[in-house]
Amino acid sequence: MRVVLNVTKENPANMSYRMQSPEHVIAEIYERPAFNIARSPTPRMNSATRVIGEDGMNGALLNQARQIEQAVARLSDDDLPAYIIDLGQIERNFRILKSYFPEYPMHYAVKANPDVEILRTLLSSGANFEAASLGEVDRLLSIGTPPQQIAYGNPCKSTRNICDLLDRGIRKFVIENLADLQRLLEKSSDVRIALRLNLTELRENHIDYGATRSAISEMMRAQPSLLTNVKGLTYYGSHTIGLSACERVIEEHMPWIEFINLGGGFLYEGLAHELRLGKSMGSFDFFTRLLAQFKKRTSVDFILEPGAVLVKNACHAVAQVQYVNDTNRELLYYHIDLGPTLGLRKPVSRILVYGDSGESSPSALIVDSTCAKKFVARLSEHAKLEEGDIIILPEVGMYSLPYICDFHLLRKPRFIYLRDTPSIET
Ligand SMILES: Cc1ncc(COP(=O)(O)O)c(C=O)c1O
Predict the structure, then answer these.
(1) Ligand 1 pocket member 136 (CB < 6 A)
(2) Contact by Cβ (8 Å): 391, 320
(3) Does any ligand 1 atom lie closer than 6 A to the CB of residue 153?
(4) Which ligand 1 atom is at minimum distance from the Cα of 309?
(5) From the CB of 236, is ligand 1 less than 6 Å away?
(6) What is the full per-residue pLDDT of the chain (426 aa) written as tens digits?
(7) Do both 357 and 299 map to the same domain?
(8) CA of 307 to the centre of ligand 1 (A)
(9) What DSSP letter does each residue of 174-237 carry, written as one string?
(10) Number of domain units in the chain
(11) Which of the ends of the chain has fewer CB neighbours closer than 10 A, N or C?
(12) Does 127 reside within a domain?
């Protein structure tokens, strides 16, 4: 068996989530007894690897890899491509994040992964939800979510959308300008409204929905009494920038604000590690302290809207190499059959590869098997893969399922659900 770990180019939006020395994990995985899925190849040690202890981040990744392998071992070739969805991990993720913010409602951002079993799991764990389309709202209602537990977080909505949402009992909305606010209030006065802030003024090149501070000043001049219908502020992006923007708006314009919806973006490295392990170790205390201090100054309450952090580590994609393209010797392409996924939304940072042809290969790109040839991951020097070799893409739970579509009408990945899984031991 061979396991390759590889770090792709850094994703600036996700810098805090980079792993520590992932190459270390290779050595550990190489060293354990060969895992005989597929062609039961002979393990080969990569000269670049080093052996480390099984503790800390590396130990967690290693044990996670073992758990995933156990699940993959139960699959046959007919099950592939597959997504392994670990609902036990989702429950643990929710419980740990909630333990840091017991007093604040947590709305899962459905767009991160709208899988119905994930939604059911989060609903029974006590989550509320943030929906950004009518389809998401309908799916939530279809599994018995009370409409009071759903907030509509998308500022982009037609008047028709507003009517449809009100008909379904949705009462929590986000607006970004006066026309938007007026239009909503004309349809219902029984609504709880948050104003989305745009952080552009405070950070260059931050393109986003929402009102800038100067737009808010303008709104205050134009129709101050209309704005008093807004009881909350929200943003999406950096929490330090977002919170200070909220504080200025409260001080300068809207002292009546009752709550701040912090949006998402909670994938901090320390927290990601704790979630993987299934236990909180205080790495997020700095954030709870920050919120407590903020609350003391402004007496607002908070709402959280986590998406990625609740699902990323709970879904793993399993695919086979379908075609090896070495036409142009400088660069090797492995096309994997991950179904019609249009690749994945973000390149993955870590992969597990099974198979060993014995032939060494320099760098290669892993791409999807459609004519779009979407980039999935990059491999540095490695033992060449062959058709049929198995690739696992761990932790691709966020924003990947929506990329499964009808493109090329390929067979869609099968979803394999794991329930009641134990947390990773290190
Ligand atoms: C309004 C809003 N809330 C929450 C989220 C979830 O963010 P994340 O997946 O970073 O936690 C998003 C993501 O785009 C969003 O737009």
Answers:
(1) no
(2) yes
(3) yes
(4) 11
(5) yes
(6) 333 333 333 332 222 222 223 333 333 333 332 222 222 233 333 322 223 334 566 677 778 887 888 888 888 888 889 999 999 999 999 999 999 999 999 999 999 999 999 999 999 999 999 999 999 999 999 999 999 999 999 999 999 999 999 999 999 999 999 999 999 999 999 999 999 999 876 556 666 799 988 899 999 999 999 999 999 999 998 899 899 999 999 999 999 999 999 999 998 888 988 999 999 999 899 999 999 999 999 999 999 999 999 999 999 999 888 999 989 877 889 998 887 665 566 667 677 776 556 677 778 888 888 887 778 877 777 778 888 888 888 888 887 776 777 778 888 889 999 999 999 877
(7) no
(8) 6
(9) EE-SHHHHHHHHHH-SS-EEEEEBP-GGGSTT---SSB-HHHHHHHHHH-HHHHTTEEEEE--S
(10) 2
(11) C
(12) yes
Separation in Å, CA 252 to CA 220, 233, 243, 245: 10, 14, 14, 11
Same-domain status, 372 and 288 = no
- How many residues belong to the chain? 426
Number of H helices, E strands in the chain: 13, 18
- Domain boundary among the residues 273, 296, 311 is at 311
Q: Cα of 48 to ligand 1 centre, how many Å?
A: 38
Q: Is the CB of 307 under 6 A from ligand 1?
A: yes
Q: What are the structure tokens assigned to 383, written together? A: 């033992």
Judge contact between 230 and 254, C-beta under 8 A: yes
Question: Are residue 109 and residue 256 in the same domain, yes or no?
Answer: yes
Q: Which of 107, 130, 260, 268 is the best mutation target for the ligand 1 pocket, counting ligand atoms within 8 Å of the beta carbon and taking the most? A: 130
Atom of ligand 1 nearest to the CA of 196: 1
Question: What are the DSSP calls for 38-97, one per residue?
Answer: TT-PPP---TT-----S-HHHHHHHHHHHHHHHHHHT--GGG-SEEEEEHHHHHHHHHHH
Give yes or no: residues 80 and 93 share one domain. no
Q: Specify the 3-state DSSP secondary structure of 169.
A: coil
